[in-house]
Write a structure and sequence with these properties.
The protein is an alpha/beta fold and 223 residues long. It contains nine helices and eight strands. The structure holds pyridoxal-5'-phosphate.
Length: 223
């Protein structure tokens, strides 16, 4: 039994406990955020049964993808994106980009994807607590932006929404930010939204209570 098997076990037990408590029937997908660890940790986590991993820098994703190219891993990109990294990211064919945060960025992606005759699955990042320090579209513009991306970017496959909980110790405010994202997710399900990516190491149980079906966990898994 490797070290990470018991870590994953503990996390899945915590996830199931909340799911049962709030009668949540959706399957919850876990993305292991590996940004702070070297590839051999990813490999050990893979051997423990984990398949989806998240990185927030294109170069790091490229490096780890290369180092672990023999493993059937599913890479998620969760970081802020500069336009000059779009081509490099597309060439890595990530499973899902969580951090599409404007129509402008979506259009830039679409243009390059069109040239390369590829498609890419993305989430629309929402700045649900309206924080200056965070990327994402403002909640009041989320629906129109989502629909505009759907309309104008045929090479993007919009899968849903992502957000980071409010940066505060006030649990009520964090909850509010998750509820904002979940409400938008619900309104977008008739337009094909299937993923509500929210919840990190410090707040994932609350995120599940608020309806998250994809969690991005780093420190709680790797330390
Ligand atoms: C780092 C990161 C995470 C994971 O954070 P932890 O607190 O280590 O679980 C999740 N989402 C994003 C966007 C991140 O940058």
């Amino acid at each position: 039994m490797n070290f990470y098997e018991s870590t994953l076990d503990t996390i899945f037990t915590r996830i199931e406990a909340v799911r049962t408590a709030v009668n949540q029937h959706q399957i919850i997908k876990l993305v292991a955020v590996s940004k702070s660890v070297e590839p051999h940790h990813v490999e050990t986590m893979y051997q423990a049964g984990q398949r989806a991993f998240g990185e927030n820098k294109v170069q790091e994703l490229a490096r780890k993808n290369q180092a672990l190219s023999t493993l059937p891993l599913e890479w998620h990109f969760i970081g802020r994106l500069q336009k000059n990294k779009i081509n490099a990211l597309i060439d890595l064919s990530p499973s899902l980009v969580h951090s599409c945060d404007s129509l402008e960025l979506a259009v830039a992606f679409n243009k390059r994807l069109h040239v390369k005759e590829k498609t890419l699955s993305v989430l629309l990042q929402i700045n649900s607590a309206k924080e200056d320090s965070k990327a994402g579209v403002m909640p009041e513009h989320a629906i129109e932006t989502y629909l505009a991306i759907k309309e104008t970017c045929p090479n993007l496959v919009l899968k849903g929404v992502m957000s980071i909980g409010a940066h505060t110790n006030d649990v009520a405010l964090i909850q509010q930010s998750f509820e904002t994202t979940y409400r938008l997710y619900e309104s977008l399900t008739p337009h094909g939204a299937k993923v509500c990516s929210m919840g990190m190491s410090e707040d994932f149980e609350l995120a599940i209570r608020c309806g998250a079906n994809m969690l991005r966990l780093g420190s709680v898994l790797f330390t």
